[in-house]
Amino acid sequence: MPITSLLFQGGNLKNSKRHLCGFGFSGLKLVVLVLLISVLSCTKIIPPINDDEPHQYVLNCFLSPDHPIEVFISRTIPVLAKTNYSWEDEWDIKLYENDVLLPFVPEYADSSYLLYYSVQPGSHYRIEALNRNNNHLLTAEDVVPKRVSITELTELYPLYTDRHDTTFGQLTLRFNDDGNVSNYYEIVVGHGYNQRFKTSHTYKITHPVITHDSEYDLYPLTLLFTNELFRGEELVLDIAKDGYGGAIILKNVSYNYFMYKRYLYAHLENQNRKKDFAEISDPVMLYSNVNNGLGIFASHCQDIKWVDGN
Amino acid sequence: MINKSALLCFLVQMLVSICFASEGGRIHGIVRDASSREPLPGATIQFGAGAGTVSDHNGYFNFRHHFSDTILLKVSHIGYETRTVKSSCARELVFEILLTPGIQIGEVEVSGNYLNSREIGTLEIPIEQLYKIPSLSGEPDLLKAYQMMPGVQMGNEGTAGIYVRGGTPDQNLFLLDGVPLYNVSHMGGFLSVFDVSAIRKVNLYKGYMPARYGGRMSSVVDVRLKDGNASERKQEFMIGILASRYYSEGPLGEKNTYMLSVRRCNIDLPLRLYYLMSSSGQESFGYTFMDFNGKVTRYIDQKNKLTFLAYYGRDKLFLRERTSSSIYGYSSGLKSKSLYKHNWGNLATALNWNHILNASLGLDLMVGSTTYFNTVRDKFESKSNDGTDKGYAEIHSGITDLFVKADFNYYGNQSLLTAGLGAVLHSYTPASGSYSYKSSSHVESSEFADQIYRPELNAYIDYEHYFGGRITLLSGLNSIYWPTLDYLSLDPRVGVHYRLFSEWLLRSSLTRAHQYVHLLTTSADFLSPDVWVPSTREIKPSYADQLNLGVSYMVKGYELSLDIWEKRMHNLIAYKPGHNVTNTQPWEFAVEKEGKGTARGLEILAQKKHGRNTGWLGYSLSKNDRQFENLNFGRPFPFKYDRRHEIKAVFVRNVSERFSFSGSWMFASGNPTTIATKKVPVIDYTHFGYNRYEDIDIRDGHYYSGVNNFRMEPYHRLDFGFSFNKQLPKYYRTYYLGLYNAYSRLNPNSYFFKTKNGEVVFVRRAYFPIIPSVSYTLRF
């Protein structure tokens, strides 16, 4: 007999108690069963949303005077699909330098379109990729920033030993900013001997330039920042790094590169923290400057200095 | 032929009448509960045809009359028997009107279909009804009851925060006897801090906010506590599954009364016991909260009243561990112990002097403080053969306000003028703390402190004028000034009420409200500590403009209302994408600023407050967007709690003196949330030099078509509550049985992707299936 009907019998609780005691052990099992069902049935696997939405094309390309032009074109895949991107090979790609069509065409080889051409710092580049089958056109543009040089990189070692008995030294980096425009920078801190660079993950920078801009707490592989706090001046950065020796890569990056990387690290960190995409922070969207598609077309110039001056 | 004498007498009589009418007289006094002698705010005093007023929060009323012979007042209040008072006319009459509590078996008589203009635009839930509205825990909750009203939304299921007309919880000003409270939730929002047993009256202003309320953009929840029974001592004890409560009130000598309530959560008791038994005393874990409300009132004389108020509420989460490690059954000599404590809550105190200067002028003077604190302490000690390691860390955030304010009320001829001045010293601590570590070979420590002081001056003027019993003009100006930043805000408030007929009331209002303090939370983290931050030079005060048009109709005790509104918000702030609670970046660098919000809606409410059957049915249609330059790449996006449709129904039936039951049903369109719709290959270069096969990193990214691009399934839920009462020789007892989510609808709380058996699946999570609750209350 349901408990509610007992209660409605004249509202006399004494009588109800007698009936409930008669329920006895069976009633207790029912309560436990209800509780168990309640606890266990709170998550449910459901079909993904918007799974039948058409795919989008993705164009990825980083320009730099220091390496060839490489263009990756692929498609989005359903969110639950196993990672198996198909690299598109039926595209015609044109590149424009300062609105002049380059006579060279990237050739497809092994998942990407490759062009051995050195872009020029300060020049404007536009890419047009046309799909031969459906005439879908992807376009994007960017300006290659001017190269910035590291004035000096020195080391002070040892600096201190932490409670894990790790000895830290200090690298001091100096470079000058061109104050006329907004500049965006990226630095990579590394170990390395004999010109073999390996990224370091154990370093500390407390300069406001970094803490103001950089998503420092995401422990990214690189640090991004702007010249907002030192426009037109020399920047001196002290970097506490584990171990002896090392190198710094300093990149002057375009606005598109800066936005892409900034959102990318937050996006990847957001996913990595949340093994089950659990609710620790809000999802982060990826930045894209590709028209009619997704991806990134961005540029950078870099300089590298080893602690021994090479 | 006109009789000149008769004409002369008539003219003289008219003249005398006019003179007398224009002079009139003044009637003022206090409405009280006949048994406890508690002042009764919100009592309706009707006089003449379609004219009347309402008692204020001190139970005080004051109006000018034009009676020539006999004065007839009809005084009514929900839960009390209506009383008619007759008196001979005089220039000044002072009344103390005692209303007898009425157990509502029959209909409470309300003569005439009369609407009180001053109360229009507020949402009031009678306290007696609050006790009966079913709730999640069985514990009556003020904010959960308001969540059942149109225009007031809940956030995530189970939380007590309220989102009023598109605003966020920090945009609501919560006042406890005039003292602001910053944190109004326990258990991450599961329950509010307001102990219903201590409350006398509550009003929620969501349309027209009188100018005396400033500093928040969306609403004001004005909670008035009881003063205490002046006739006899009363006590109440309640024990339930979630919490236990003790309440006491009574006289303290001839001229004083007291009110005291203490409430405590019971969850930690079984948790502690379980952990102690399962870990042989090595572990202890628990969560608990408590609330204390205390008030002492001294009635110095007919014109002076002094009140001291104290409120303390705290949540506590703790974990204690002791471990001893062993290798192959032998002690390794390593022992450790740790203690983690997280406390957060409010402390508010105030001293208030209420003084009637003369028949027309009253004064309220208050001095007090309110503090919100949030402290985490973590310490450990580890002993081994190599020595002892000790560590300690403490992080603290909070706000403290010290304030003094004075309010004046002047009752004119068909008007009420209220003005006030105040000064506040705000002290914000977004984060401060210390850390120390000591081992046999190493010592380190550090401290950090981030404290911001913001003095504030504020003033307001509020004016209400009644024209011929049909038109009421409400106007006011609220001003806040922060001298350290030279921020000055002037917030006009204008409203017009027009009584078309005695049953129909048209209303409109236009208001502006500034807000100088902001609450930062990540929407995904329900246990994240609240961080209140002040406006700075870079982060300007937020403000909102709201336009409201409405009409109300009252017939046979039912009140029907329709409101159309629009609110535009400016200078909003939000965390940057990807921010979470583990970030240590200074908060000023972690927020997006200069955001905008636009919300608009339509609300319909049918409510019955009197009689054996009470309740309401409400519907709202609304749209709520946000826009930030660096969120969603500058495009507008739906607010997280943008629910298009809501239907809410509450029904309370007092079957007899011994039994009553209640039911509530709620339907709401699904909340928007951000869900990935595609997978995207993302590339990154991180290494020196160029090598196609080593330096290019290709990883899985996820494509979101926009912020809050996906609508959850609709939310709906049915609750029941049953009260069984009995008057026994020495006490009055009540059993309460509640059923939350009676048909166990698994309303979605979140959607996410999860790896299961190597496959990625899409999961919907719900938290609250059917939940029964019981409580037992004794009153004596």
TrEMBL record, chain A:
Transmembrane domains' residue ranges: 20-40
Pfam families given in the database record: DUF4249 (PF14054)
UniProt keyword annotations, A-Z: Membrane, Transmembrane, Transmembrane helix
Keyword flag Transmembrane helix: yes
Record's keyword annotation contains Transmembrane: yes
Official protein name in the record: DUF4249 domain-containing protein
Organism whose genome encodes this protein: Alkalitalea saponilacus
UniProtKB/TrEMBL annotation, chain B:
Keywords: Signal
Parts forming coiled coils: none
Gene Ontology terms, MF aspect: siderophore uptake transmembrane transporter activity
One GO CC annotation: cell outer membrane
Domain TonB-dependent receptor plug intervals: 141-216
Signal peptide range in chain numbering: 1-21
Keyword Isomerase: no
Record has Signal as a keyword: yes
Biological-process GO terms, alphabetical: siderophore transmembrane transport
UniProt-listed InterPro entries: CarboxyPept-like_regulatory, Plug_dom, Plug_dom_sf, TonB-dep_rcpt-like
PANTHER family listed in its UniProt record: HEMOGLOBIN AND HEMOGLOBIN-HAPTOGLOBIN-BINDING PROTEIN 1-RELATED (PTHR30069:SF29), TONB-DEPENDENT OUTER MEMBRANE RECEPTOR (PTHR30069)
Protein name: CarboxypepD_reg-like domain-containing protein
Organism expressing this protein natively: Alkalitalea saponilacus
Organism phylogeny: Bacteria, Pseudomonadati, Bacteroidota, Bacteroidia, Marinilabiliales
